[in-house]
Write a structure and sequence with these properties.
By secondary structure, this protein is an all-alpha fold. It has one domain (13-191): Rhomboid-like (Rhomboid-like fold, Up-down Bundle), CATH 1.20.1540.10. It is built from eight helices and no strands. The chain has helices at 13-31, 35-40, 51-59, 67-88, 90-111, 121-131, 143-162, 169-191. It is globular and about 45 Å long. The model has no long low-confidence stretch (mean pLDDT 86).
């Protein structure tokens, strides 16, 4: 075993970029007592003509309410993201992240006008459902996808109905739906 010939590689630039930006956003939020988080890294109903509204529609995935929230989301992204980035490519995965960020922001904007949303949980759920399609075969739906959908989406529905906390279960559901849909679509196109 030769350890001295080993080198660190940048294996998942999109995922590592999200983790790095999220770390900085969370740190700045912590240092400023949440001011930077509220201004740039949270999404909420605001004036549609304001450029910051549109920046926040995507940038809210980088802000996290605290370090536990940050570590939880980044752990899942680092676990699932490199495999997904290798399979689908950096450009495609960045597109999944952007679509998920905007979609969760839009749903929050329309349905919850008085709720501020931050964090990459929607992206995490998109990655979870997307990853269940990694061994997809034409004409089949993986049992792992069905079970993941039941467990993760089902849990979010139950918690959304019965548990009152500051967790946006709807953004988890939206992210999961996007990941499931895109996972199916990407794999159908790859098999043709």
């Amino acid at each position: 075993m030769k350890i001295k010939n080993m080198k660190v590689t940048l294996n998942a630039p999109v995922v590592l970029g999200i983790v790095g930006i999220s770390f900085l956003a969370t740190l700045l939020g912590y240092i400023t007592g949440g001011t930077i988080s509220d201004m740039f890294f949270s999404t909420y109903r605001s004036e549609l003509l304001s450029p910051l509204t549109w920046i926040r529609a995507f940038a809210h995935i980088f802000g996290h309410s605290d370090w536990t929230h940050f570590v939880g989301n980044m752990s899942y992204l680092l676990l699932l993201g490199p495999m997904l980035e290798e399979k689908y490519g950096s450009k495609t995965l960045a597109g999944v992240v952007a679509v998920t960020a905007f979609s969760t922001s839009l749903v929050n904007y329309i349905l919850f006008p008085n709720v501020m949303l931050c964090g990459a949980s929607g992206v995490v759920f998109a990655f979870i459902l997307l990853s269940s399609f990694t061994s997809f075969k034409q004409g089949e739906i993986p049992l792992t996808f069905i079970l993941v959908a039941i467990f993760f989406i089902g849990q979010q529905i139950l918690e959304g109905v019965f548990v009152r906390d500051n967790i946006s279960n709807l953004s988890h559901i939206v992210g999961g739906i996007i990941g499931g849909f895109l996972g199916y679509e990407f794999n159908v196109k790859m098999k043709k």
